[in-house]
Amino acid sequence: MEQTEATPVVPLEAGAGPENPPCPACGEPLFGWIGRKAGLGGPVRRCESCGLAIVGEPDGAEAALRELDSLRREDMLRIENRGSVACALGGAGWSGLQPGRRHLFTVEAARRLVAQRDQIVKSARWRPLASLAGTWQTLLNSVTFGHNAALGALRGTAAVRAERPWQRRIDALASVVLALPALLVAIPVELAGGLSRRGAVISLRLELF
Questions:
Q1: Dihedral through CA 6, CA 13, CA 21, CA 81, nearest 10?
Q2: Which structural domain, as residue segments, surrounds residue 46?
Q3: What are the pLDDT digits (tens) for 93-126?
Q4: Rounded to whole angstroms, how far apart are CA atoms 53 and 119?
Q5: N or C: which end of the chain has fewer CB within 10 A?
């Protein structure tokens, strides 16, 4: 039987360079993910190892930790999970891409970041209702000119309005007409995400080593 030559495995480090700076969480190269987009401070890079994504130029671990800490609610950190099924499905339409956000976290990225200050992620808890809302909005973003129009109107989530008035009117109409169909799709999508530990919104509890 004829044998085929195995394809060599190229390590992530081989991609390191000026265009692919190191991830502040794990040190692996950051690769291009999403180009310039309205409402974002620059193109978005992502780490193929820990999953962290960064809008614009990376500022190092301290900046990432400051933004992570800003997501604290009482004794928990709540992240919109870039490793979620919703993010994989939505891509540039993912609801977690919001104005003002620079670091887009995964559970693994958060774990590696807090380890740099002698903390561990004690628990990671899926937030079903918040996750369902994010997945629902991600699906609606695929048919609107703006970004996060529905959650922007309903919950004050950071949104990017469409440029032209007629586009904003279409976005409002689409958000109403397609709200229920999008919800019916979002429920099994987010259920699959939650059961596979890839829910859209995750609460993290931290402890010292």
A1: 70
A2: 21-208
A3: 999 999 999 999 999 999 999 999 999 999 999 9
A4: 21
A5: N
